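Case 248 in the screening queue. Each case pairs one protein sequence with one candidate compound; here the compound is zinc ion. For every case the pipeline is the same: read the inputs, emit a complex structure as tokens, and attach any notable structural observations.

Predict complex for case 248.
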Amino acid sequence: MISQQVEKGLYKTAVALPVGFILANVTETMLVYDAHTSRKPEIENSITQDYPTEIQEVETFWGYRFKTVPTLRFELTSQERDYAGQGKLTLGMHHFGQDEIYIASGVIPSLEDSLLEKIELWFVDSLEPKTVLRHELTHSLVDQIGDGVNCGIGSGEKRDHIIQEGIATYAEIALGSTQREIHCQNPLPETIEELGDYNDGYCFVKTLLDLNRIQGMVYLLCRPASEKDILQPEKYYADFRRDNEMRQ
Ligand SMILES: [Zn+2]
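Case 248 output:
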């Protein structure tokens, strides 16, 4: 899933400028929605048009093909809205074990009660839709690969999220669709709760994936890291290096 705290970014602007001005100003680079419009066809069309190319990019990157190409959806079910939680702008979502992904195309209903209910943004001119697509497609592909090799990471625990989101974030960044720079924590904190799923997940998986992307991903699936491995990864990395050398 890709979520981001929407308040943070908008708050900065909202403090300095009256809302009317924000609306007038941002339309050049972003599309702005009101809470009564739930979807935007022009965004859906452009995402749908890009979809086959993005699938190929992700397949080439990971060296595997989708067994089933995930169906694109542009609406959150009510269950997903609950899951996404209040105050979060959910841009994309993939459910493990299901061959479908959700990509936001308009209003994000979880903000209904917020002060910002009339301001819903999708950064059309940025690379964000591609980033979200590649992220969610990676989740889906990794899920299908896991099935294929009879391995898999769970989805319920913090360490599972760190690995899943780490792999998806790695694809986003390596495929060059995001401007994000990630600074890895060093030294690592003492408890897993102090790690972020996305950034710290990326930092954890990067060592393996940089060395051998395809084998590294399969290793992450088939030899799921424990909490201890994530907090003190040297042994996990060393085991992978040995395993990887033996295959060459
Ligand atoms: Zn994700």
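Case 248 observations:
- The mean pLDDT is 77.
- The pocket of zinc ion is lined by residues 1-2, 135, 139, 165, 168 (CB under 6 Å).
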